[in-house]
Amino acid sequence: MKTSKGIAVTCRFCGGVAYLEKVETSFLCPYCHKSQPLDEKTIQMLQQYQNAVKSYLDRAYRAKEGAQYIEEWTKKGGKGDIVSLMNIIFILIITVVAFLMPFLISRGFDTQRYGTYIPWVFIILFMLIYFVYFYLIRKKPEVKIEETGQVYVNCSNCGAKNVLKAGQIIEKCSFCGAFLLPSAGAMSQGIKEVQNVARAAEMERRRKERLIAAKHNIVKSGSFAIYLYLGSFGLFIGIGLVSIVINAYEEGKEVFPIILLPLVVFSGFLGLIFAVYYWRRRKKRIWSETLNKFAGFYKGKATMGVNGVVDWLNKFWAGDYSTTHLQTMGRYAGCVEFNYQGFPAILIANPEGYTVRYGRGHSVHYDPFFHLLIAAWIPGISEEVALPGEFLKSVENKIKGLESSGYHIIVGVPGIMAQIDSNLAKHIKKHPENIISLSQVFGELIGILSQLGGKPISAFP
After folding, report:
1. Which of 339, 366, 371, 375 is the most exposed place for a label (fewest CB within 10 A)?
2. What angle (nearest 5°) sits at the alpha carbon of residue 168, between those of residues 163 and 172?
3. What's the CATH class of domain 286-452?
């Protein structure tokens, strides 16, 4: 690791080296005993260094805390499925009670006297279960930040090599006892150390958030709703058909005229189920072939579903990607991973919109989306030296040109991303073959990265 020369604090009257316990606005020379102010720029630089280190450590703490909350919730929540499991159990119990009540009534069960106790027992039971569950996940986890790294500083008095922790601004030389302050180079090194700690913690949190979001994909969980509804009606009609047949045989009546209408309805339900299944399979095959063609263009890999997207993001994308997108990726969604001129790149395709309904008249609609991501290290931006806008003046015209064509460009710490506007996304949804035109956009994004001095990155451990 690089060693920086420490800042010396010397008396301006006699030239003696100061030996201080803490950084103050002034110090007393141990030789001539004259008080004098410490250089104002030095104090300001050290304070800025301390504040920067504290900011990164706070980020690391919050990220670690978030990651541990997710981990605890997953462990105590049966991998996040306890609420869903309890809802299923609740539905099963209600179903059992619905079938059980007629049986109890037929056996002389006093519903007026005891019937109201049954729902109250279930309500109290589930209230207790939910209370215990949410009490378990609300406990604040213990968060420990790993070592923040070391900064090596040579004493300006005797030249001995000393070690400071990242963020530490004062120490005594281990050899001569002189006052040690980190130089600008040492402080830059210290900031990089805590940056790495913060980024590693944030990456861990993002990985866990993405996995949970993909696991609780609302489109995937709602895909079987239509089969459930149609199947339930079909099942009731089927049971009715069996009952009609049995009664007809017992009474010696002809079966066919009686069951004709229910049989037609039952067959219609079965036909509708198969029609929905076939239509979905056909549409999924179309998009699978479309993404495979795009993958062949770059010798990449096409994957259907949300899991391929999460895997790529967790390997290469050191920044945020909306978990809402992961939760609303539809049954025809997928991605194409490939290497573009050495840069890890991905096309995320979600050609199907989705509407979440929250009762009568309340709903949220999610439009189809197509995202183009290229992971890269960009000087100044990936280092978080300043806001991206300060570095984008050289590529401002290129970005404006893409945005005027319907692409929203985001340049940040993890690389560059293009989001297609909703109108263009709907057009590609209707004409999947036009997805190949996005290859030109990838070329434009690479041009922007090259102009910014972007470099390819390798997968995160």
Report:
1. 339
2. 55
3. alpha beta
